[in-house]
Amino acid sequence: MPKFIIANWKSNHNLESAREWIRIVDKYLVENNIADLKVVLAPPNSLLAGLSEEIQSSKIELATQNISHLGLGSFTGEVCAKNLEGLEVKYTIAGHSERRRFFGETDQEVAVKVVLASKAGIVPILCVDEPYLNSQAQSLSAQVEKNPQNQNDIKPIIAYEPLEAIGSGKGAGIDNVIDVIKKILELFPQSPVIYGGSVDKNNVKDYLSVADGVLVGGASLETYSFIELLKGAL
Ligand code: PGA
After folding, report:
1. For the stretch 102-113, what's the b/e string if a residue is b when 16 or more beta carbons lie within 10 angstroms of its beta carbon?
2. pLDDT in tens, 146-201
3. Which of 123, 137, 113, 134 minimizes the C-alpha distance to 192?
């Protein structure tokens, strides 16, 4: 199975720079015939519609950085699964620590996001850290029990994202990653598990040797550093 390389841009880039990034990264993937990596781009929502065409004709897939825990309706500022129809969005990040920290997202809300995205055919990338790994798994089980008919469709990718590693330049030690992935697989035996937090060209290969992919913030922003990271991953 190809390894996931998921580029989380957070609130960076505009339409022009995003199109340029896709053009350059896709050219690299095509020219080097890279089949071992699955590159997924999570741009700001405002860029999704404008990038659909570029994405369709590229090897890159599209994710959102968040999805509403509510459905269609009067929820100013929210973007729900239905709002994404027709936009080539295949994945959504759910419960990133920045969402939990700055926007007060709870385990329960994140669990609802995972279920709603799954129901809409969007694969959730559920972010967890050790302090709330168990409570998040419990909230998700409770939510799945309320939707038993969808049980088989709910197979999130789990991203182990230790808070202190995000944006710090200090990625987690490999032993810690191995340890936590083991715990994650006990709770989510069918899920691919990826790692995120200060992944760069120098450490990506180590993380990919123990995980099914990586979630990359800072090192995904510039095409130069991202392509270096892809080279490091091969
Ligand atoms: P970083 O961000 O690669 O800049 O540490 C990772 C993330 O927030 O998922």
Report:
1. eeebebbbbbbb
2. 877 777 788 899 999 999 999 999 999 999 999 999 999 999 999 999 999 999 99
3. 123
Structure token pair of residue 49: 């519609």
From the CA of 161, give the closest atom in ligand 1.
9
Per-residue confidence at 142, pLDDT binned at 50, 70, 90? very high
Alpha-carbon gap, residue 2 to 38, rounded angstroms = 6
| Centre of ligand 1 from the C-alpha of residue 74, in Å | 32
Q: For position 232, what pLDDT does the model report?
A: 97
Mutate to test the pocket of ligand 1, among 11, 41, 97, 215 (most ligand atoms within 8 A of CB): 215
Residues with CB under 6 A from ligand 1: 8, 161, 166-167, 196-199, 215-219
Atom of ligand 1 lying closest to residue 200 CA: 3
**Residues acting as catalytic residues:** 96, 161
Answer for the pair 186, 192: CB distance below 8 angstroms, yes or no.
Answer: no
pTM above 0.90, yes or no: yes
Q: Are 110 and 139 in contact (CB under 8 A)?
A: yes
Task: For residue 167, give the ligand 1 atom closest to its CA.
Answer: 5
pLDDT average, residue stretch 125-135: 98
Question: What is the predicted pLDDT for the residue at 150?
Answer: 72
